[in-house]
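With this grant's support, we have settled on a layout for protein records. An illustrative entry appears below exactly as we store it:
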Amino acid sequence: MNTEQVIKSGIIKGDEKTLKKFYRDNITYIKGYVLRNGGTMEDVEDVFQDALVVLYQKLKSGSLEIRVPVKTYFYGICKNTWRSRFRKRQRVLTNETLIINQEKDIDSVTREIELADREHLYRKHFQKLSSDNKNLLLLYFEGKSVREISKMTGYTEGYTRKKKFDVKKQLLTMIEKDPLYNELRVTA
């Protein structure tokens, strides 16, 4: 069995050793996310436990096909759990003016979280590109013309256009295959 299978099996069986290791390996990421986004240590523990129950139920049902490491999938569950709690918590205010202001703040914070998540998703997959492809896109993002880029890279202008298109398509394909992409599309 590979490590991913051991983790999945341990979670399904409720293996204490596996669960403790899973907790130690993942709590830091969850803690950082929740605390950065308005939560407390108590929220961190609650989110972790709730997300673990969701993961357990999905694994136990046998209908879940995870194409990323369990750790990555779990992090996504935790983020969604926290976002949901954060929104509910902010709506509890009774004063109408406060509610309106709070909703604006929530929308602002939510947008910031979603923008940060989108940027993280983009950067994660951008880093997977070859150095030549990254360099080509960086020149393009700097506002360089196709002519300037072709002189700098030694490619013909036609090849530069085609390569830029292919690299952007490759990057977009990688991003669209990431489970976080679908989560971000749902919240947008």
Observations:
- Residues 12 and 117 are 29 Å apart (CA to CA).
- The first helix runs from residue 3 to 13.
- The mean pLDDT is 82.
- The chain is about 80% helix and 0% strand.
